[in-house]
Structures are given as structure tokens and as C-alpha cells.
Amino acid sequence: MALGYEVDDAVAVITLDRPDVLNAFDDDLGTATLAAVAEASSDDSVRCIVITGSGRGFSAGEDLGALQEGYRAGSVPELGSTLVERYNPLIRAIRNAPKPVVAAVNGVAAGAGASVALACDFRIASEHAKLVIAFVKVGLVPDSGALWFLTRMIGESRTWALAATGDPVGADRCLELGIFHEVHAADVFEKEWRARAAMIAEGPTVSYALTKSLLHQAAEVTLDDQLEAEVLGQAKAGRSADHLEGVQAFLEKRAPKFGGT
Prior knowledge:
By secondary structure, the chain is α/β, with parallel strands linked by helices. It has helices spanning 27-42, 68-72, 79-96, 112-119, 146-154, 156-165, 171-177, 189-201, 205-218, 223-238, 241-251; strands spanning 3-8, 11-16, 48-53, 57-59, 101-105, 108-110, 122-126, 130-132, 169-170, 182-184. α1 (27-42) runs parallel beside α3 (79-96) and α9 (205-218) runs antiparallel to α10 (223-238).
């Protein structure tokens, strides 16, 4: 099995597990990852989702080696269909997950692997992590939402530089640009991302889901539309048990104990 899946203390950890090819995606891994994200999203006991990789890489993106036979035979790969059937559903599933998704970027995240990391809500990286918008190196265009995510994070000019050169961007530079939220030394990396995921899992899940939805639409709608959406979101959050617990904890001058409902 090319994918690991475990749930511990409300955190679902999805591990891309093809280390011999830097966790590059083939049909099996793509299908399994989408299924795992869907399972974690629908599991009420899960309040935070983590995607990480085994070995030296997070994910090298599409497994071009798996396409070699077709290339040698002179056939033209249907890469557009691959996006429609495999990558786009995965990106949407991560973005639409009703709970925070953390990318624990342990090594290189390249091509569509970079896009998967960018789609997540938090990006916590090892000092050895690198982001590579590598598509130009093989004569392709960035896909799986890479340009959409990056232009919102770092602007059009910087995104163009990454896409047009395909040069690797190290962990510290990604932190400086705001692409990564945290960078940790390799020897404490797993400890740190697990601690952060556990902290997130203790938070108000309903509030997270509503905030995530409002944030994702904020750059695309008018102020009036955003204000109306916030009315609906706040009304729903106000009916949650976690809101009541938060208010009670505030009045009692103690830390809240959110239950995720």
C-alpha cells in the first residue's frame, strides 16, 4: 500500500508512502490520497488532518517514470484527463475539508506535490524542505492550482519568477515569503508538526470550518457579499457548543475545552 493512514487523538495523518520515487503520484496513490482525505473529512472524531511524506520527500508530483513506456512508444499522454480525474478532485477535497489540513513538508515538494502542499491550510516544514514549481523543466504549465495559490500568497511577479525558472526555493526563503508558516530543524520536525496538529485538533472545529470557508471566498466577492456571508457564518457559529464553552471559559477566566461541535 502506497499510503499510510492513522488517527490518533483527533488527528488523522495521511502519509504518502512511495519513498523510492520521492512519493510521486501514480493512479493508485492519487486515488488512495483522495479517499483518505474524504474519509478524514467525514469522520466526526477527526478534527485536524495532516498530509506528509515518507523518506526524503513530501512529493515529487506526477510520476513521470510511470509514463516512460508510453513516451517511448510515441504516444501522447492525456495529462489534461489526469488533472480532471486525479489532481483536481484532490485539491478541491483539501480546500473543502470542513476541518484544518496541515501539510507537514518533510522534504522536496515539486510539481503537483507542491500544489498539494499549497492547497493545505497550514504548511509546517523541515529545514530540508524545498518548494519547486518544476513544470517548465519538462515543458509543461503549472497545474493543480499552483499559480492560483501562489499569486494570492506572494503576488504575480514572484510567482512568475518561480514558475518561469523552476528553481527550488528553500525552507527559510519560503518562510520569509509566507509560503511556509513554520520551519523546524530536522531532528525536531515531526515532534513540532504533531504538537501543532494536536493543538489545532483541540480548537473549535465549527469555527475553523466557517472561517476557512469565509477566507476562501473573501478575495473573490464584494464587500457586501462578504458581510452577508459573515452574518450567516456567525449565526451558525453562535449556535455551536464550542461558542458556549468559549464564553463560559472567558467568564470563568480559564482555558476553553472545545469539544468540536
